Every structure is written in structure tokens, then in C-alpha cells.
Amino acid sequence: MKITTIYAAKILGYITQNGNSLTTAGEIVENVGISYQYCLKVMNEMKHAGILVSEQGCKGGYRLKTKPEDVSLYDILDLFEYSRSAEKEKEREGLENDPFNRFMKHIHEKEAEDLRHFTIRDVYGKESNIEKLIQEKLAMAK
């Protein structure tokens, strides 16, 4: 997993923990442990993807466009991991019947299906219990 994906989740988690209220980039940088420029880059990508919105001005900042329970972990992975690997699909032309390629495609599709069931609120919400969440995921996989 790319570090950008982890930072994106941490940014969304911090905003979620603040009640999805407008949060400045400076506050996020201070609490997430990311450089200011990198934070802006990641948030700008999430803004263009429709995950975040921003408001300008002295009382401006960033917040989730929807409720935290409407942002799935898949949404984050799709933006920062999966959509970028789609650019490499041309490199894979002619490999559709390769057993390893077919196996990995199946794993990716199953993972994506599972991740749609878990949200930012599940991971970063006040009632978050990561151990319970992992157990639920394992139970779903059976």
C-alpha cells in the first residue's frame, strides 16, 4: 500500500474525529504528521474525486463531502491504488489468460467487494474498535 493512501485515510480520519467540521490544512498537518505541501496534494486529489470539499476564507477549511459512514475504504483505495494501476492495463494486454494474472484479478475484485462494507467512520469513529472490525472482516471472508 502506498504511503499516500495511508495519509489520505489519516486525513479523513482526523476530519471525522473532528465531527466532520471545517478543518484547516495547518491543523491537519500538525495532527497527522505530514508536510504541508504533501497534505495539500493529497487533499486536492480527494477534493477532485468528490470525497472532500473546501471552503475559502479565514474560517475556511476542508470537510468530507458526505457523512463519514458514506465514505468506504474502497473509495480511498480506488482513488490512490486501483485507479492508478488501471493505467498499467495496457502493459498487461495479452496476459488475460495467464493463471497468475487471472488469480490476482479475482483477489482484487474480492478485496474491493469486501472493502465497500467498511467506512471511515468504522475505522476512525468514536465507537471504533479495530479488533472487532478485523473479526467482522474475517467472518465475512468465510
TrEMBL record:
One of its GO terms (cellular component) is cytosol. GO terms for molecular function: DNA-binding transcription factor activity. InterPro entries: Tscrpt_reg_Rrf2, WH-like_DNA-bd_sf, WH_DNA-bd_sf. This is Transcriptional regulator, Rrf2 family. It comes from Christensenella minuta. The lineage of its organism: Bacteria, Bacillati, Bacillota, Clostridia, Christensenellales.
